[in-house]
Amino acid sequence: MGLEQLPADWRTVPTLQGSYATLEPLATAHADDLRAALGAGELSRLWYTNVPAPAQAGAYIDTALRMQADGQALPFAVRNAAGHVVGSTRLYDLQPDVPRLSIGYTFYALSAQRTGLNTEAKLMLLQYAFERLGCINVVFETSWFNHASRTAIARLGAKQDGVLRAHKRHADGSVRDTVIFSLLEAEWPAVRRHLQSRLEANA
């Protein structure tokens, strides 16, 4: 489904404002900031992730914007409370006919990890998906070997659906088994309260 065929809310990247994080439409102008957020390349050294190296920040944005133009994704730059760009995330695999989507392509600078920023960013994305777009299902995917990501997704309240064996490839070309998690519309109220309580505890 091309961009022009999507309903308006599914083709326009919103700006989502919170106390710890602001999500804004990803643009080519964010390249230098994302390059700085990626630091010396620490985040890209984990072979089972698809985090770009600092030198690839511009190409990463170009790919995200092509996905948006093709109606496949809504990509964001993520700012912290001080207004600094500290990472990126994306709504993708957009299926408004279901309706469902996936949340992923997420990375943050080391300074933003294990803070309230990611919890709030996920809360705002899920709220947009369920309450604005009317999704009945939101999906998260990660590599079998990315144990930190699997733990973080489960902590959100998502349930593991299963493992797709030899599903795709890691950035280094090795075959990836993909662990699939999902949240259903009926589960969203409890998950929303769970995430809100985590933010309140972080305040």
Overall geometry comes to: globular
Helical segment count:
6
Our estimate of the beta-strand percent is 25-35%
H/E topology pattern: HEEHHEEEHEHEEH
Helix content: 25-40%
Structural class: alpha+beta
Strand arrangement, largest sheet?
1-2-3-4-5-6-8-7
Count of strand segments: 8
Main pleated-sheet profile:
8 strands, mixed
How far is the first residue's CA from the last residue's CA? 42 Å
Descriptive overview:
The chain is an alpha+beta fold and 203 residues long. The protein has six helices and eight strands. The protein has helices at 8-11, 31-37, 57-69, 116-132, 147-156, 188-202, and strands at 16-17, 21-25, 73-80, 85-95, 100-108, 137-143, 159-169, 175-184. The chain has an eight-stranded mixed β-sheet with strand order 1-2-3-4-5-6-8-7, with helices on both faces. Strand 7 (159-169) and strand 8 form a beta hairpin. It starts with 7 loop residues before the first helix and ends with a helix.
Structural features:
globular; 33% helix; alpha+beta; 203 residues
Provide a quick synopsis of the model.
The protein contains 6 helices and 8 strands. The protein is of the alpha+beta class.
Write the layout of secondary structure elements.
Layout (H helix, E strand, L loop, with lengths): L7 H4 L4 E2 L3 E5 L5 H7 L19 H13 L3 E8 L4 E11 L4 E9 L7 H17 L4 E7 L3 H10 L2 E11 L5 E10 L3 H15 L1
